[in-house]
Amino acid sequence: MDRRTAALFALGIALAPLNARPAKAQQPELASDTAPRPVMAVAEIVSHLEERNRERAAALRKFEAMRTYRMQYRGAFGNRDAEMTVRLNYTSPNEKKFEVLSQSGNKFILEHIFRRLLQEESNAATEENRQRTALSSKNYDFTLAAFEDSPDAPQYVLNVVPKTDNKYLYRGKIWVDAKEFAVTRIEAEPAKSPSFWIKKSQINHRNQKVDNFWLPAENRTENWIRLGGYALLTIEYKDYTLTDTAPLEASDKNVTSSGFAQ
Q1: pLDDT reported for residue 250
Q2: What pTM did the predictor assign?
Q3: Is residue 254 situated within a structural domain?
Q4: Is residue 256 in a domain?
Q5: Residue 231: closest CA among 2, 76, 85
Q6: Phi and psi dihedrals of 154, rounded to 5?
Q7: Is residue 182 a contact partner of residue 176, using CB atoms and an 8 Å limit?
Q8: Is the peptide bond before 194 cis (omega within 30 degrees of 0)?
Q9: Structural domain includes residue 259
């Protein structure tokens, strides 16, 4: 693999979950006629989601966490594996400091993919990028895909399609907790492949509740390489320590246990 080919390959792999640009919107899926229909309209769901996200972001001032990045590549360039453990220190509103604690495996993945991901995340944390990439009606079109009625955790499933040409946006589905109006899960793909080398990418992301805040738990991004091959990137998020937070009210006061507005 020459330097140019290697660089393009790394860029495509590293930015596949990030460099999404909007393509022509496809016809959104509609909720089944037999599915439970929530009283709340999509616009109201999104409004609550935006409001609660702003409140949580303002209240979460500082935290620490551990992450483990893992990549497996199988294909035309042989088998490549790497792992990196990182400590994150976050200070509101947009400061993220990463400390690499350990790393092993393929040096190319470590230096040109994992470190590039850390740099891209730091860049995305600026206020300008935060505004452009927020999960909001300004940046996305939303439609209702389904309502999953569960006594413990009712959820709205929304289709999301990006409106603007921003490399950090995605297209797919999000699961929104009907009581707390927080995103619990994402299934998405880049609207347009960021590189010739990437034929297809699929992102699966899950959030977890830490105290009153919803923070990343696991990210799994599958990439199918055009010249043959498969790359799996996983990020495990754990050991959160919230060191500075403001009081945050419970968010379920206007919603019944079934997810319907009162």
Answers
A1: 57
A2: 0.80
A3: no
A4: no
A5: 76
A6: -65, 145
A7: yes
A8: no
A9: no
